Amino acid sequence: MSVTAIVRKPFVYKQYNATLALILINFFIFLITATFRPGLAQPLALNPLAVVDGNQWWQIFTYMFVHGNFSHILFNMLGLFFFGTQLEYRLGSSEFLLFYLLTGLLAGVFSLALYWFTGAYFVFLVGASGAVYAVLLAFATFFPNARIFLFGILPVPAPALVIGFTFIELFSQISGGRGNVAHFTHLAGFAFAFLYLVIRLGINPAKVFMGHHR
Fold first, then answer.
1. Ordered DSSP codes for 21-54
2. 133-147 pLDDT, tens per residue?
3. Which architecture characterizes domain 11-209 according to CATH?
């Protein structure tokens, strides 16, 4: 069996509400860290010094289940609900769960490397945004004709929203705007989602966005 065949070996299609489970886990951890155990957020967040010097390598995974405040988790989980449920139905729960967790993990690894090599040792990265951005790109790839209503009013094609967010994140990072937002983590979510779709599923999002058959 070739390497490509192994990498692209599909899961048996099953539905077991992985999106809902992820949302519930995120809210449960937020409830615990916001009320009963506030100190738990720090060892779960991604801090370069804690990971590299303290060998707390679990943080490259757990950071995506920790959120800074209610609005932070609310918007992330709304995005996960609206885009994730439809993507999970299309891919199957096992494929979706692998996609979500792997892209979030790789976004964490990328962020750790970026922070470490740029000397940003005291950053504490939290939030599911990297994985949610990955879900958005995959949603736009599988549902390119979907319209997303910005502010509940303006209909925007899903691929255009991804492209727009990419430019906004790049501009925000370069200009230094919204300093508490991990723009490169969001972009890493897009990038790793792109690679996952190409390598694992054999789908090129760029061709889909340009109107070619995937």
1. HHHHHHHHHHHIIIII-GGGHHHHSB-HHHHHTT
2. 999 999 999 999 988
3. Up-down Bundle (1.20)
